[in-house]
Design brief:
mainly beta, 4-stranded antiparallel sheet, 1 helix, WD40/YVTN_repeat-like_dom_sf, repeat, WD repeat, Putative transcription factor WD40-like family, WD40_repeat_CS
């Protein structure tokens, strides 16, 4: 499909050859059969060779991550798809819909299990524990639930939010879950006991997204109040607020390699690139998604596994791909080359470390000597 450059004249990006931010438009993809449906979720396969999108009409579309061509389309759910997550062993993934159903999938897009009564209302978000033994879900029914993945059994229900819970994220190393919802509250939970550890009341409106940084010390939150907040887990307090969006912030994504770099999306179709050390956005793309519809919301953002490209899904019915200036001609080459991955990160003055080494048992779920992150009193490591 031909790229849509209709918004190019309004962008404020200074596309210099040394710009390290993935803000260069690459391609816009539309599933024409599902053109009347917004793209609610985007999910790269672990290899980065393909991208799965989940739409409002319950369809999954598989796109080639190198040619950006459509490869497969299936009716995955009977209701709008709201959540998708890969397991950390890269073999399985799960999805949730507006009907409260959670489905299990294999990497070949085969549905192997259906839990039709996971929640009473929409399953808004899903997140795996690093050990893959468990995952958590959140819903418009105001609850957060913890599940045994292999047995597909509910283990705990976490209650405390006063309204729809829209986002949940499992800590990268600890037995700790963050959640946020329409009650404007961000909560931290002990996944072992199900106990609420603390609540943050700093946002003035709905919380749309909560995301742990891979370092395990920072929690990023986005809200309808147009503000992004960064919390430091070590001090258990707000570290910084990021302002710049002119409408509600609907999506967040930390860079997979550079821990100080994140991207945000808004209901006005804008995408901003940020560095933690700066209060203002480093790159603004005010019309990244545009359409004749009143709502251009960027519903989801996800980085390619090696961090050289990011994908956005929007209410404008399109999936768009963005890369770093100078890398556009390289994105069709072998993306699994580790040297190429390092090259993607070379312009950032921050260290890049690999993921922690993890050894697990079902009962304990311990972390290996390569683990990083803060140990919270009373909270175990992994689950």
């Amino acid at each position: 499909m031909a790229p849509d450059h209709s918004y190019a004249q309004t962008t404020t990006v200074d596309y210099t050859i040394n710009n390290p931010f993935a803000a260069q438009f690459v391609r816009s993809c539309t599933n024409y059969r599902a053109r009347a449906s917004s793209i609610n979720r985007v999910l790269w396969t672990p290899s980065g060779r393909r991208l799965i999108t989940g739409s409002q009409n319950g369809e999954f579309t598989l796109w080639n991550g190198e040619s950006f061509k459509h490869e497969l389309r299936i009716q995955g759910h009977d209701h709008a798809i709201r959540s998708m997550a890969w397991s950390f062993d890269d073999q399985d993934w799960i999805s949730g819909d507006d009907g409260g159903t959670i489905r299990y999938w294999k990497s070949n897009m085969i549905n192997v299990l259906v839990n039709e009564s996971a929640h009473h209302e929409s399953v808004r978000d899903l997140s795996f524990c690093r050990t893959n033994l468990k995952f958590c879900s959140c819903s418009d029914d105001t609850s957060v639930k913890i599940w045994d993945f292999e047995r597909c059994q509910q283990e705990k229900t976490l209650t405390g939010h006063g309204w729809n819970v829209t986002s949940v994220d499992w800590h990268p190393t600890n037995s700790l879950i963050a959640s946020g919802g329409w009650d404007s509250v961000v909560k931290l939970w002990d996944a072992r006991s199900g106990r609420e550890l603390c609540s943050f009341y700093d946002h003035k409106n709905w919380v749309h997204s909560v995301k742990w940084n891979r370092n395990g010390n920072w929690l990023l939150t986005a809200s309808k109040d147009q503000v992004i907040k960064l919390y430091d887990l070590r001090a258990m307090k707000e570290l910084r607020s990021f302002r710049g969006h002119q409408n509600k912030v609907t999506a967040l994504a930390w860079h997979p390699l550079t821990e100080d770099y994140f991207v945000s999306g808004s209901s006005d179709g804008s995408i901003f690139h940020w560095l933690v050390g700066h209060h203002t956005p480093q790159v603004e793309i005010p019309n990244a998604h545009t359409s004749s519809y009143n709502n251009n919301s960027v519903w989801d953002l996800q980085w390619h596994p090696i961090g050289h490209m990011i994908c956005s899904g929007s209410n404008d019915r399109t999936t768009k791909f963005w890369c770093r200036t100078g890398d556009k001609s390289q994105i069709t080459q072998n993306q699994s080359n580790s040297a190429f991955a390092c090259h993607m990160n070379s312009n950032f003055p921050f260290p890049c470390h690999g993921p922690p080494t993890i050894a697990t048992t079902r009962d304990e779920g311990t972390i290996g000597s390569g683990g990083v992150g803060t140990i919270i009193p009373g909270v175990g490591i992994a689950v």
